[in-house]
Design brief:
about 80 residues, mainly alpha, 1 helix, about 60% helix
Length: about 80
């Protein structure tokens, strides 16, 4: 007995066209998603730059010595 050959539709076959259409639809959708992600990243970059600018402005307006961060406990022994 011989093994059955796998079915490979040809270009003129409706099954091939359906598969090709689905493939193209997926690529079109991925292009839209990629564009949306790029726009979102650009928007977030703009927002972050704006927030950093506001923080810088606030930092310049603080009186000297009004903020002194604690020394980090690098060794975890509780001493600072």
């Amino acid at each position: 007995s011989t093994a059955a050959e796998p079915f490979v539709p040809s270009r003129g076959d409706p099954a091939w066209n359906t598969g090709c259409d689905r493939h193209m639809a997926v690529h079109d959708r991925l292009d839209i998603i990629e564009e949306t992600v790029e726009k979102t990243v650009e928007h977030l970059e703009t927002e972050v730059k704006g927030l950093l600018g506001q923080l810088e402005e606030l930092a310049w307006n603080l009186p000297p010595g009004s903020f002194s961060p604690p020394t980090p406990d690098l060794f975890g022994d509780g001493e600072q």
